[in-house]
## 1
Amino acid sequence: MLENHDSLKNRGIRIICIGIFSLIFSLSIYSLLSSNQSQSDIAKLYNLATAVIILVLVSLIAIGYGSYLILRSEASRPEPKKSHLGYVSRILTQKSYWRIFVISSIAYGIFFAFLSQILIYHDDVEGDTAPSLYLTLCCNYPGYVPMITTELTELFSILIIPINLILAIVVSILVGFNLALNVHFFRMFRNQSQRRFPIASTFGVFSGLFIGCPTCAGSLFTVIVGFGASTVVSALAPLQSLFIAISIPILVVIPLLIIREMKKNETCDMIGN
């Protein structure tokens, strides 16, 4: 039985590794090829760009499926509480926490998409070009091309930059899990004084707003302090890498600390009994 669990887990890990490798390889190769093309040859990249976009989507689905297999393998173990993944699977397999995870991930994803300019509402567009779809074939760093611009209506469009899409999915999932874990943690410790970890996790949720682009941070600061958006964005642009470096680790580390605290509490309860 244990071999079946390990086999399922190893399969999930292999699928995730293949998906991540495909993402990095395809985006890096495309950026390299597009940067070496002359302006007259850029149009020849259309088919390659389409293939890269499809591969990115397939890779993201594969990573999601691999993660599902790992959680499924941990959930089916006789004693899933012994590992951190066991705790994750135990929480997410409960319907109430799964609903919290899904709803909060989708809601935060939509919010993040507007702030990071994936979903764009504009009322100053002249002409009637919708519906339409454009591909930006070159030239930028890996992850920023190929770019898709879809005008659904005259007022609403979608801008898909691969790296922004990946960040939006990753952050939304982490935020959703953080929220589900916080709810679980509060229910466990509602009659105790141990509240420091959920507060830190909430900080991690809001810090995720800053990793998409300087516009995200600028929008938030504009609302809070009333500064001009362009001024704030310009000031924060050099800090984009710092936001990325800080926010995702926070959203990853805080759940690990919460789970460690829960494990410690359960161990104490077992010893006390």
## 2
Amino acid sequence: MSLEINETTSVKEQYKKTDNLNTRISIHDKYSTNKMGLPNWYFTIYKIEDGMKILELGCGTGSMWIDHRDVINRCSQVVLSDLSEGMLAEAKNKVGVFQNTEYKIIDIQEIPFKDDYFDIVIANYMLYHVPDIDKAVSEVRRVLKKGGHFYAGTTGENGIMETIVKILGVDLAYTNTFSLENGKEKLDPYFHQIEIKRYVDSLEVTNIDDLMDYIYSGITFKNACKLSQDEVRCKLVSCMEDGVLKLPKDPGMFVAIK
């Protein structure tokens, strides 16, 4: 597979508004078998202490923080950033205004903060969109304090879309440039300690229309797949058992220490 997911123009178009991201989040909310939820799991991994300075890159709609505003209040500074003005506006609306919190447009390849500034940098499900991952990781390391933690959430190579591509029997030339399998080699030059954490989960989808919305919320898939939407839907329906389509999920996180 080689469906490229590091195409900056497509990514900016895909996430210029919040609709596509909300569609992608909603299917997990509806059909995930692990009811803890990925954002709640994140906070069992993060080592956030009182007075810390935190930067999140690619915060999207800020959904991760909605049930963890108490953590924001314990920090001295929280910077929630994204490339999309629409995402940041939604994040500010959902998460709220705090004295210690900023909402900023930031490109991970050019982080506008001084060296050794943050205790924690977070970049979930976004590094595979970055044109120059090496430059991005270098920038993350630069702004982290010595002993600071970089948390980078991503997926492995046996996730939802990989399984769907197999079901459809099509070659979309899919390449994840920062996966749980290949991400460590991108981090190794910059961090002395790297650990992989995995979150066990899957989907049990009962409404194929929801899954169709999820699939076609990704511009790259929509542009690359040669099958009609009716053909895609029929193939997915044919794989349902007792009204349920079971799909693996393969999420996880790199925990890297400077």
## 3
Amino acid sequence: MKGFAMLCIGKTGWIETKKPVAGPYDAIVRPLAVSPCTSDIHTVFEGALGERNNMVLGHEAVGEVVEVGSEVKDFKSGDRVIVPAITPDWRSMEAQRGFSQHSNGMLAGWKFSNFKDGTFGEFFHVNDADMNLAFLPPEISLENAVMITDMVTTGFHGAELANIKLGSTVAVIGIGAVGLMAVAGAKLLGAGRIIAVGTRPVSVEAAKFYGATDIVSYKDGDLAEQILKLTEEQGVDSVVVAGGKPNILETAVKITKPGGSIGNINYYGAGEFLTIPRIEWGCGMSHKNICGGLTPGGRLRMERLIDLVKYNRVDPSKLVTHVFKGFDNMEKALLMMKSKGKDVIKPVVLID
């Protein structure tokens, strides 16, 4: 089969590779729609995961099952499915401990284009199919469905990590697709005031659609100073960090009230250390909680998010700004995520 791959750090291209083989609990899926992610950009152009040679890229996909293993009970050839970006090993001790994302090693639930070939091929492999696939309802479009696989679940996880309370004030730093879903998640969890940090007009308008009450731009000055001024120097109850350079955690700590929570879903693709400001962290005793997490994966998570879309609790369509047809546009879509023009949030590539 052919696949669009990371050839080495800084270089992508098409390769010929072996079609994957299903184990007894696994499935082989043919993609119907895929979307490149900023994580792919970190992986290829920053070498965030280290050198990878001829590794098929991609972890956001919906598709059609073409083959299942002998022990798969719920899925069969021809089923249209949503495939989560995170596909844990559910027979692991980490899954029993409640952290399936790290099954058999830190971040090891993230398998596509990390530990194995991803979804940008003619076929791809899904481990533990009964636990990692979800049926695609006919009323959900392919474009919306592929947003559920990563953008929706990751953004919502940021809101979950930030411990948002009814009526609380929340800041979301970074309003790309993940940050926009963090805004939507904060609203669903009952936040009162939602301060979104971003500059691109297309994202600002989407943030307002999803529930942002205030917009702050780094172009207008120091972010911490602006947000503290907006909140009469009180700060916010919760922060979701969904973008920014490694020093963005400093801003998050500065704007969080004592006892508040910071949920980090930002992927730091470079550098050795992340710093936090000593004084604003109360010399280590501020009760400002910092929690970073990889989004949960698996079937149940997908089914619950599918219901949020199906029953009109969230509309992911505002995330999709460009739609391409055909595998030949894979490189164009990936480079669009790299350059991130003013009118881009997320591109989707429809295979059929």
